[in-house]
Specification:
Blueprint: H1 11-33, H2 40-63, E1 66-70, E2 73-78, E3 84-89, E4 93-100, H3 102-107, E5 109-116, E6 125-131, H4 132-142, E7 162-165, H5 168-176, H6 180-195, H7 201-213, H8 216-242, E8 246-249, E9 253-258, E10 263-269, E11 273-280, H9 284-287, E12 289-296, E13 309-316, H10 320-327, E14 339-340, H11 346-367, H12 373-392, E15 394-397, E16 401-407, E17 411-417, E18 421-427, H13 430-435, E19 437-444, E20 451-459, H14 460-472
Antiparallel strand pairs: 1-2, 2-3, 4-5, 4-10, 5-6, 7-8, 8-9, 9-10, 11-12, 11-17, 12-13, 14-15, 15-16, 16-17, 18-19, 19-20
Helix pairs in contact: 1-2, 5-8, 6-8, 11-12
């Protein structure tokens, strides 16, 4: 690349869309507030003015944004009023991801997301729209010289050491057991609550009267059809998001491709993996299925509420060891037995899960005794959850790896390498000291600075053993 290049003109569209997303939450309350007011016309004019400014700003931003690869560096110049010159060394780049949304695919484009060491967004870069060929070139050109490239047929890379893909049947099972039904139902309820004020009173009243006049059998059928519809939408969402999911192991990295509408190509350097998690939800555990994910140090996440990166959408639990031995042999040592929390720790697990339901039960018993059956059911479920958390909590220790089993609702098995654990913390309150118990917290790096895993009420001898293992063992960095 001998001279600076600009992004594809479609980048202006993405700039406008991003700006609108940032303004929409501020504009909607204003529109609702003045919807029945004479001032509403001025609000519309203000929105039109903002739209014109956004379009103008996107054009200027596109004109003022250039990039060039020179030697071992990527240089980016950007800024409408204040010019910023950013230089990213190839040696600092941790991963390069290519993402194709619907608009990208219409124009044959891709987004190039470059992540450097650490989680400081200011030293990362995102080229929002370049041709797919250009994205492949940048990916291969900016990779470390001694590392294998994962993109491009003509780049001369070595073949992957192992590749795994999810079948359509397994993808449908993943969608059916994902629990996304509840998320979609919550979104529908939220949307209805927001739109309820716009429904005319006569329509709302007549609809309510009509529903109350229907037979119970009809309402049950309607509820069942609605459930099936939302469940189907949840399955469709998973299929669209993870369709054609494949993971390939190269010498020093993992390469993941996924997505039907938005196609994403993601690179995970092995050295950035801090922990491996095997999660079994309440639905999937009885069926013998699990989801694999990893915690990665540094970088950005699309969903700020989720820190882990999906490694494989759905596997038979019995197939996990074979999968890890091929794709991630560094974490293939899955234990067969675990050291459990002692029986004297059970009471603490029960207290944590039942204290609030019991207080609610007392309140209902006093104020609404006719509804007492509902809090009783909640208390019984809470007791079962406390017992399940107690029976799950355990650990296994080897020379270089600590494996934990935890449960909040889902059962999770976490594998931690000694050299990846940032801190181990042991804590005791007065009752713990009398019963020789201790709580343990293990911390690793992730995209937001740290992820913590807790195992409560371990035997004091076990907690001391873990602390000694971590403190005195010579670590390899």
């Amino acid at each position: 690349m001998s001279s600076p290049k600009r992004l594809h003109p479609a980048a202006m569209i993405f700039t406008v869309i991003t700006s609108i997303k940032q303004l929409v939450y501020a504009l909607i309350p204003i529109i609702i507030l003045f919807s029945n007011d004479g001032f509403f016309n001025y609000v519309i004019l203000g929105i039109i003015g903002i739209a014109i400014l956004l379009i103008g700003h996107s054009i200027l931003s596109w004109l003022r944004y250039t990039y060039i690869v020179e030697g071992d560096q990527l240089r980016i110049e950007q800024g409408v009023i204040i010019r910023t010159n950013r230089t990213i060394s190839k040696n600092r780049i941790q991963s390069i991801d290519l993402t194709q949304g619907i608009i990208h695919r219409l124009f044959g484009l891709t987004k190039v997301q470059i992540e450097t060491a650490g989680s400081d967004r200011s030293v990362d870069a995102a080229l929002s729209a370049v041709t797919f060929e250009e994205g492949q070139y940048l990916h291969n050109e900016l990779k470390h010289k001694n590392e294998t490239s994962a993109v491009g047929e003509d780049s001369g890379e070595k073949p992957g050491l192992a590749t795994k893909a999810i079948s359509n049947k397994r993808l449908l099972i993943a969608g059916s057991t994902s629990g996304s039904f509840g998320v979609i139902l919550s979104l529908v309820a939220l949307a209805f609550s927001e739109l309820e004020s716009f429904i005319p009173e006569t329509v709302y009243t007549s609809t309510t009267r009509w529903l109350s006049s229907q037979a119970m059998e009809f309402l049950i059928v309607v509820a069942f059809v609605l459930f099936i519809l939302l469940w189907g939408l949840g399955i469709l969402g998973i299929v669209i998001k993870y369709g054609k999911f494949t993971i390939t192991r190269y010498e020093n990295e993992l390469f993941i491709t996924r997505g039907l509408l938005e196609k994403k190509q993601m690179t995970i350097p092995i050295k950035r993996i801090q922990a491996v998690s095997i999660k079994e939800t309440l639905i999937r555990q009885p069926l013998g299925f699990a989801t694999l994910s990893v915690e990665i140090a540094g970088g950005e996440q699309e969903n700020k509420k989720v820190t882990e990166t999906l490694l494989f959408p759905l596997l038979k639990k019995s197939d996990v060891p074979a999968f890890l031995s091929e794709i991630l042999p560094e974490y293939q040592n899955m234990p067969d037995s675990y050291s459990q929390v002692p029986k004297r720790g059970l009471i603490y697990y029960l207290l944590r899960t039942t204290i609030i339901p019991i207080l609610a039960l007392i309140g209902v018993a006093i104020a609404l005794p006719e509804w007492i059956i509902l809090p009783i059911i909640v208390v019984l479920v809470s007791i079962a959850l406390g017992i399940a958390q107690y029976r799950t909590a355990s650990y296994h220790l080897t020379e270089s790896q600590l494996t934990l089993r935890l449960r909040l609702l889902s059962k999770e098995t976490v594998m931690l390498k000694t050299k990846r654990i940032q801190a181990v913390e042991k804590s005791q309150h007065i009752l713990h000291r009398k019963q020789d118990l201790a709580n343990m917290k293990f911390s690793v790096l992730n995209n937001f600075g740290g992820k913590h895993y807790l195992v409560n009420e371990l035997a004091l001898a076990d907690s001391d053993k873990i602390v000694d293992w971590y403190s005195y063992r010579k670590k390899e960095f």
